[in-house]
C-alpha cells in the first residue's frame, strides 16, 4: 500500500467502526472528549495520533492501534552483547538506502 494512502484508509476504518456502533460524529466526539471537527478530521485521515488514540479508546478499538506496535522486548543478540544494561541507542551503522520502500503488510 502506498504510504500516502494509509491516512485515508485509517480514516475510513475509524468511520466504519463508528457506523458499526451506530454513533453519530457528535456522539463519538462526546465519548472521546474531542471536538466534532477532530472526529471529522480523523475520519478524513487528517488527524494527530493523540486524537486517534482518544477516538479508538472511545470506540473500544485501541487494541487495533496497539497491535501495530507489538512489544518486541530486548533482542537476544543485545542480551549477549550487553550484560549490564538494555540498549538505549542505535549505533547508526545500519543504513537504509533511499530506494528501499518495501510494501507495508498491514
Automatic annotation (TrEMBL):
Q: What Pfam family is a match for this entry? A: HTH_3
Q: Which GO terms describe its molecular function?
A: DNA binding
Lineage top rank: taxon: Bacteria
Q: Which residues form the signal peptide?
A: none
Disordered, as annotated region: 82-106
Annotated HTH cro/C1-type domain ranges read 14-65
The molecule here is called: HTH cro/C1-type domain-containing protein
Which organism's genome codes for this protein?
Answer: Pseudidiomarina piscicola
